[in-house]
Amino acid sequence: MALRVHRKGNPWPLRVIAILVLVTAARAWTEQADAGSSASRAPADATPSAAAPDAASSASRSVTDATTSASRASRAPVDTSVVLYDFAQGPALRFCLLAAALGILYRIWQFGRLTRTMRGRYSPQPKQRVFVPARRSPRQRGSIPHPVMRTASLAFHVLLFLVPLLLPAHNMILHRSLHVSLPAIPAPLADRLTAVLVVLGAFFLARRIAVPRVRVLSTAYDYLVLLLVLAPFVTGLMAYHHVSSSRWLMIAHVASGDALLGAIPFTKLGHMPFLVFSRFFVSGEYSWKPGRRAWGRGA
Amino acid sequence: MSESTSRAIMAQRIGRILSRNGALIRLSLQACAHCALCAESCFKFQESGGDPAYTPSYKAINSIGKIYRKNGRLSESEYRAVSELVWDRCALCMRCYCPVGISIPSLIACARNVCRERGVFRTYDGTRNA
Question: Could you give the ipTM of this predicted complex?
Fold first, then answer.
């Protein structure tokens, strides 16, 4: 007789609901933004909030696309690249941001379901806690043993967040659309940091190919995810250095950025929320903060 | 008890283990970045002189990962290979370090449970028929 697995925790219905909610919310948001942008095209009576998304689109367009007529009339012959660019930095970006936010919320809920709060401070069964003398000091215990990989990994992950957030061009768009901005770093510095990040990414790629123990673990999916992570940075770097003046480069930049954001909770990039849960909330020898939760459902 | 009945009971028990731990297995396997940074923390890996098959994540992915993906429907030889991974290549000393914080020992222990239900397990000299 064939094995039968009863998956009580099968989240498929939940996923379908989540996707439906996502699509509906993104459509509502897009329609609202469209209404906002059409309202702002009427000269006088545009409310600031409604005008904001349109300001974002026109601002980013004028940044990237200053030579072409930014506010082209809707009756002009349709240029596919303009339509695609507007789609990538408008509805697609909103959809992916929403997907990432809801996906991470789902992961938080899932984490809560898969762990339980412990009664004791460190462990529910203090007698079973085994202390093996560690060769490394407690301060080092929570970090990657290999010094090169520790430095490279830390630099890569910090830059992954800092560069896009502190990039002057991104902050300009953010300021024009939402009237908020983060402190920006000088553009040449951001350029160099991006180069460092791409080099580190190439190093990880080379390591994946060259080191046997990583190679046996690697699948096509791993390479794909690494390339997905590097894509917005490489295209951004190319755009900054005017490798190509084509608008398609910016479309590739924005679209890969969208894909990267949206992919966080649903792919291997899910190690980002997972790391926060496991290293900060779960009690363990390698935790960065002695959490009060343990894996496994409640009794 | 007939052969088919005992196999059905075995299948049911394996199914129960997998369904009880399914969400954690899925989440852990998804979060694993396949970085192989856990290798250095494994004394068996160090002792083997860097054999990739001793990397903790390799052991977890090729034991419980395989079992979970195939719903426990592994052949006898595949189960034997899994048991070699989870008993001979892992001492379950709980010293493996995962940068992402995946509980690799939990996954290996789960694979051991499934193997035991399947009747494949570690035997020690003279204890087989004890």
Answer: 0.87
